Amino acid sequence: MKKIIQDLSYAELETLILSLGEKKFRAKQLYEGLMQGKAISQISSLSKAFKERLCEEYEDLPVAIKETYRSADGTEKYLFEYADGNLVEGVLMKYKYGFTQCVSTQVGCRMGCKFCASTLNGLIRNLTAGEILCQILIVNALHKKDVLGQGKEARAVTNVVLMGSGEPLDNYDEVLRFLQNVTADGGVCISARNISLSTCGIVPKMYRLADEGIPLNLTVSLHATDDVSRARTMPVAKAYKIEEILKACEYYFKKTGRRYYFEYTLIEGENCDETHAKALIELLKGKPCHVNLIRLNEVKERDLKALADKDAYRFLGMLEKGGLSATLRRQIGVDIGGACGQLRASYLEENDK
Ligand code: SAH
């Protein structure tokens, strides 16, 4: 596989350009083109010969949108295809204040959560920083024209959530590089405060992330109130205890001043009766955190059931009464199907891959 030019920061692009005997200002032209989601060969300010030289070593454009699914509520889901044929999915949610894109950080996942489709065939490979960034660059390019009343620099994607397939902290170095590049001035320049990173709770990496001092929103997938039940649906619970996760979250708060979030997927008969609500309140009461309750997207390969809507609201009510800050996440794009990994899994199945 060729190298990925979108892995490079602006400073690194400059070094590359100079090493190829080109003038420094070419780096700016190249960077601007790349950040607009263009393939190297499409950047009109650069000479054909120079572009061809770059393309001998680097992918022209590492990712393409293979399929787009549009929901009646405006949500879009994409199946992205990388140069080696690997597929990941992404979602674009349209809100009044801007567009939130959900990106994938790995092809597949090795965390093994029972409710999740991304993990059905394990981890295929990590994505590089540039491959992750390209998901945003090409979606941004696609939608830039939708952002009315703004000039050339208009951004369609204003918020990013790392909640697609993969465990971001299991691909730490590339994800960190992605975070640095996506927030850099002059690029797509998305504020760290508008980025949420969701982890199943890899404790040592949570500390490392806190020490990087990036003020993003840290979200932990909790899904249970004690370690034994958590291990039933999340094998990672055998490695890290809830107590350790909570300590790492506190550290994150101390370091960044940012409150943290928990995701709690409601699985019928598993984690959402009154005793669980009480236990959750006991665990989190008084902490600078917010709980996002998620409706389970039933994965056909797994035998887990979603909680009825009225019971989900009842569970939310109990948490609120107990003093927790909590919301039940609005369900969007239901008609285009699927949580993390479901799109890719069904595509692979249909196409018998
Ligand atoms: N690996 C990261 C990102 C995963 S996806 C993590 O574990 O946090 C983002 C969220 O969706 C996680 O909370 C994950 O547990 C949840 N999720 C995965 N599959 C789901 C499903 N079928 N229904 C509802 N939520 C799901």
What does this entry look like structurally?
Strands 1-2-3-4-7-8-9-10-11-12 form a ten-stranded mixed β-sheet. It has a two-stranded antiparallel ribbon with strand order 5-6. Residues 148-152 have low confidence and may be disordered. Helix 6 (203-212) links the parallel strand 8 (195-199) and strand 9 (217-221). The chain folds into two domains: 5-57, DNA polymerase, domain 1 (Orthogonal Bundle); 63-351, TIM Barrel (Alpha-Beta Barrel). The longest helix is centred in the middle third of the chain and has 15 residues, at 129-143. It contains eleven helices and twelve strands. The protein has helices at residues 10-19, 25-35, 48-57, 129-143, 172-183, 203-212, 227-233, 242-256, 274-284, 309-321, 342-350, and strands at 63-70, 76-82, 87-95, 98-102, 106-108, 123-126, 157-162, 195-199, 217-221, 260-266, 289-295, 326-328. It is α/β, with parallel strands linked by helices and 353 residues long. Bound molecules: S-adenosyl-L-homocysteine (SAH). Residues 113, 115-116, 163, 167, 198-200, 221, 263, 265, 294, 296-297, 299, 339-340 line the site of S-adenosyl-L-homocysteine.
Main beta-sheet strand count, sense and barrel state: 10 strands, mixed
Neighbour order of strands in the largest sheet: 1-2-3-4-7-8-9-10-11-12
Structural class: alpha/beta
Small-molecule components bound: S-adenosyl-L-homocysteine
Order of helices and strands: HHHEEEEEEHEHEHEHHEHEHEH
The helix tally amounts to 11
| Overall pLDDT metric | 91
According to CATH, the homologous superfamily of the largest domain is Aldolase class I
Please state the second-level CATH architecture of the largest domain. Alpha-Beta Barrel
Q: What is the strand content?
A: 15-25%
In total, the number of strands is 12
Spans where pLDDT lies below 50 across 5 or more residues? 148-152
